[in-house]
Amino acid sequence: MGQAVGNTLRTNGVTVRTCLDGRSARTRGLAAAAGIEDVRSLADLLMASEVFLSVVPPAQAKTLAEEVAPAMRATGARPLYVDCNAVAPTTIREIAEIVGGDVVDVGIIGAPPRPGSRTRFYASGPDAERLALPGLDVRVLDGQIGTASALKMCYAALTKGSTALAMELLVAAKTLGIFEVLEREIADSQPEQRAVMERALPRAPTVAYRWIGEMEEIAKTFADLGLTPRLLEGAADMYRFAASSPLADERPERRDLSRTMTDTIDELAEHLASPPLDPRD
Question: How far apart are CA 57 and CA 69, in angstroms?
């Protein structure tokens, strides 16, 4: 997501920088491909920026804020801090307290942006009206930190939560020997759902490691309201399972595009049946 956001901003005339200190070769390659400039340190990045976009796996959102806050204090830099991560409303409010400056809560809905995409950047918070991201569809909701994240959590519960459920029930069907019958029934009686599953499931294992934390943040959102977190905790477990499979060795930009939903379920069912690795091996 970060690479696609940066590339869109750059192609619309924005200077985009990042700090790749300690990052993987893959991340460095993605940044270079997007034309994103690498600076020496986080402090240098903050001093050179008017807007700081946080786009990381949900489990790392608070950690990044905890790194940025002292660097802002040490340098005196005060960029607009825009948290674009899939986190619970209570989490983004904690992040705003950690940063202590001008913070915008953003919930991204849609695939990584590209020409012609319909990706939406829902924004909220007292400084949301200040947010300008050329080339991206920014939609301001209100002046409250947490509103945009709440929207993202409820929406992703439907989309990624449903994908986790589809993965689990189809792996179960394959293991029980009724996959072909069930797949035909879904195609006949739920053709739209069948099409969604065909689009979503082949990609899911390649991004499952990121979605574990997102499901946990949705579970936290529901628990904070007095609702059960268990449905989405189960979704997190399914993505944890997918992330442990050989399919997770791929990444979205280099996954096998010829792999179908059926192929994916076959491999996940085989992974379920395989014995766990001996840590001594």
Answer: 19
